[in-house]
Amino acid sequence: MKKRTILTIAVAIALLVSATGTVAAQPADGPPNDLPEPVPEFVSDILGAIADFVGGALEALGETVRGLTPSSGAAGLNASGS
User: Fold this and answer.
1) What pLDDT score was predicted for residue 76?
2) What phi and psi values does residue 27 have, to the nearest 5 degrees?
3) Are the C-beta atoms of residues 33 and 23 closer than 8 Å to each other?
4) Structural domain boundaries of the chain?
5) Dihedral class, residue 56 (left if φ above 0, else alpha if ψ from -120 to 50, else beta)
6) Residue 19 in contact with residue 39, Cβ under 8 Å?
7) Could you tell me which residue, 69 or 15, shows the higher pLDDT?
8) Which of 27, 34, 36, 79 has the CA that lies 20 to 30 A from 21?
């Protein structure tokens, strides 16, 4: 159970950092110039799957996340070895 909790926290942090990385990288002397883009629809589905995983409703989080994420960008990176 402890490994599951740590994995869930790591995935959630990775999602949050990737979604807010642009805003966090700007200087701290004022508000950001541009607002971040809206979060893609599949992100809420992934967060729901993480909650299900923590609650014990899911056994394999990786397979569920792979099924929820769009494959256009990720498949190309994996295929080229990058």
Assistant:
1) 41
2) -60, 155
3) no
4) 1-19+38-70
5) left
6) yes
7) 69
8) 79
3-state secondary structure the chain: CHHHHHHHHHHHHHHHHHHHHHHHCCCCCCCCCCCCCCCCHHHHHHHHHHHHHHHCCCCCHHHHHHHHCCHHHHHHHHHHCC
Task: With a cut of 70, say whether residue 29 has pLDDT above it.
Answer: no
The values of phi and psi at residue 25, to 5°, are -80, -5
Average pLDDT over residues 50-57: 92
Question: Residue 36 and residue 11: Cα distance in Å, rounded?
Answer: 21
d(CA 57, CA 51): 9
Check residues 32 and 8 and name the one with the higher pLDDT.
8
CA angle 17, 26, 30 (to 5 degrees): 125
Using CB atoms within 10 A of its CB, is residue 53 exposed (0-12), middle (13-18) or buried (19+)? Answer: buried
